[in-house]
Amino acid sequence: MLVIPAIDILDGKCVRLFKGDYNQVKQYADDPVEVARKFERDGAKLLHIVDLDGAKEGSAVNAEMVLDIAKAISIPLQIGGGIRDLDTATRYLENGIDRIILGTSAVMDQSLIKSIIERFGSDRLVVSVDIKDEIVAIKGWIENSDLSLDDFLEILRGIGVKRIIVTDVSRDGALTGPNYDLVEGISGFKVISAGGVSCDEDLKKFKGIEGAIVGKAIYEGTVRLVKNNLAKRIIPCMDVENGRVVKGTNFVDLKDAGDPVELGKFYSESGADELVFLDITATVEKRATLVDLVSKISKNVFIPFTVGGGIKSVEDIRTLLNAGADKVSIGSEAVRNPEFVRESSREFGSQCIVISLDCKLVGAEWELFVKGGREATGIEVIEFARKMEEMGAGELLVNSLDRDGTGKGFDLELLTAISKAVNIPVIASSGAGCKEDFLKAFQVVDACLAASLFHYGKLSVVDLKGYLSDNYLTIRK
Amino acid sequence: MITIIDYNSGNIASVCNALKKLGVEFELSSNPDDVANAKKIIFPGVGRASYAMKQLRKSGLIDVIKNSKVPFLGICLGLQLLTDFSEEDETDCLSIIPGNVKKFGEGLRVPEIGWNKVFFSKPSPLFRDIDDGRYFYFVNSYYFDEEEFAVGKTSYGCEFASVVQKDNFYATQFHPEKSGEVGLELLSNFCELC
């Protein structure tokens, strides 16, 4: 769900009204443009701007300032207040404003809504439904109409409105908690709730709505906009055996898709956020070639890349890092000798120590496996994950033996349990079958890894990122 | 010719690969004379602040770095070491750029590992042809809490200085050598413009 910060402009300043009352104003900042930039920096994905002067006067009083804000930021914004005719709407929509919000005018003149939808499409319009004592309110909440909510929604549906903002005026700016029943009872619209949010807990209780507008609570610091601004990472993984990428690849545009050097370069240049190379070569003798390979790969890869497979000593790690790897992934050896993890993270820093966990549900618990999933250890996964964090692991790469190769989606229960148990980044692996699987997994993890899905060309990193971004995830493009 | 300070605390390989890709000549050295005579310096760093300061002391590099008058680029820990003090092991640093390095607060996954946006707060030659708000790759558990010399800012729980600039000293909290095309662009700007 989107958390949408609000900027309410009155006399050119950034303010909040208490319960929509123009006589109870609290000023938060002098310069709304600077506030907008700050919200963008803090990770907002959409801004909600209200021209309070405009709402009161019935014309776009602060239009210049709103357009200045649009120029100063690169995230979308929606603006409401004083838009009462097609000229004003057009001025906004043709000058960098993504959506306009109609409230009062929607009640008084539905022909305006119709002509905006006809000209710009229903995506560019939001209707604000302000409710005061179960009646639709108008004119900056000063006057009441005689329409009930249901009647009003029926009208909106009839003229093609797709998205609405629902404000319980009696809760706005009062920090008393949102009116959940009101917003969740509405169907057939994309619903954005406004008003009443006072803390993170309030936000968590929303179900099924697109977003919530938060004003005062952000200014007062009781809601932090986004705690984690990091882009969700997409990580193609290549299994390398005897210097060749296995799990077959069928990129038509690569001369040799089995060549890890070429494939690494391809992914590095086509939007992957990181790369993982796992050496599955069976014999130690043949493994010596890995170092040479890592060195060749790293010359063409300017995103972080992790190398794993058979790492058993501090010396192994040093050799790989010197060859150009940025991180190493440790599996069996971390289980056999957890102290090795502590030793490695002290020597090289925890940022380059990734611990790979092979997990399988046995009875009611997840059990840790080693040797490519062939050997059970009797160790419970969640406890082990915590232990690895304590030992200095920088990230956990979570493989599910139950899901690997099934295409049935990541094991969300497992990932949720681990993610809650530790405070280091968690990378989901095993089971990705479609882009929706990534969207679900990213609700609980920081990064997702997949192999054949990308290699076989079933899904491209670029398409996947487009889809995730459309669904409001933070994605590097 | 760029001199990369190689003091046993950096992932030198990635920086070297990036400079090779850019076609920029470089040498690796931990010799104070080489660093004193360098035309341009890159100061990478990963690992712990206390250990890195020890390595610098051992190599006799502290004063040479402090007195450096040539364009100088610190990367990651290389930024944090330029400050007065780091909370990591309570370490006194080089005091080239005033301010302190602090640990990220509660409620965040630490280390910060991944791609985060850099917003320009002041102009810098490092930013030529780079758009405001692009993603760079970060790996850090500590951040530089600084206003005056910050030219780029990033938020992770709180806002911190992700690019700093004071006189001939430039530094980035992120790894430009691992930040894809935009990172190479920034490195190239340092090589060409600073």
Task: Characterise the protein shown here.
Chain A has 477 residues and is an alpha/beta fold. Chain A has two domains: 2-219, Aldolase class I (TIM Barrel, Alpha-Beta Barrel); 233-470, TIM Barrel, CATH 3.20.20.70. Chain A is built from 21 helices and 23 strands. Chain A is elongated. Chain B has a single domain (2-193), classed as Class I glutamine amidotransferase (GATase) domain (Rossmann fold, 3-Layer(aba) Sandwich), CATH 3.40.50. Chain B has helices at 12-22, 32-36, 49-58, 62-66, 77-80, 180-193; strands spanning 2-5, 26-29, 41-43, 72-75, 85-86, 91-92, 100-103, 112-120, 134-140, 142-145, 150-156, 158-166, 169-172. The two termini of chain B are 13 Å apart. The A-B interface holds A 37, 40-43, 74, 224, 226-231, 233, 268, 273, 298-299, 302-304, 321-324, 326, 348-352, 394-395, 423-425, 446-447, 476 and B 11, 13-14, 17-18, 20-21, 46-48, 107-117, 119, 132-133, 135, 137-140, 153-157, 159, 175, 177-181, 183-184.
Helices and strands, with pairings:
The complex is a heterodimer of chains A (477) and B (194).
Chain A: E1 2-10, E2 13-18, E3 21-29, H1 32-41, E4 47-51, H2 52-57, H3 63-72, E5 77-80, H4 86-93, E6 99-102, H5 104-108, H6 110-120, E7 125-132, E8 135-138, E9 143-148, H7 149-158, E10 163-168, H8 180-184, E11 190-194, H9 200-204, E12 211-214, H10 216-219, E13 233-241, E14 244-245, H11 260-269, E15 275-279, H12 284-287, H13 289-298, E16 305-308, H14 314-322, E17 327-330, H15 332-336, H16 339-348, E18 353-362, E19 365-370, E20 375-380, H17 381-391, E21 395-400, H18 412-421, E22 426-428, H19 435-441, E23 447-450, H20 452-455, H21 461-470
Parallel strand pairs in A: 1-4, 1-12, 4-5, 5-6, 6-7, 7-10, 10-11, 11-12, 13-15, 13-23, 15-16, 16-17, 17-18, 18-21, 21-22, 22-23
Antiparallel strand pairs in A: 1-2, 2-3, 7-8, 8-9, 13-14, 18-19, 19-20
Helix pairs in contact in A: 1-3, 4-6, 11-13
Chain B: E1 2-5, H1 12-22, E2 26-29, H2 32-36, E3 41-43, H3 49-58, H4 62-66, E4 72-75, H5 77-80, E5 85-86, E6 91-92, E7 100-103, E8 112-120, E9 134-140, E10 142-145, E11 150-156, E12 158-166, E13 169-172, H6 180-193
Parallel strand pairs in B: 1-2, 1-3, 3-4, 4-13, 5-7
Antiparallel strand pairs in B: 5-6, 7-10, 8-9, 8-11, 11-12, 12-13
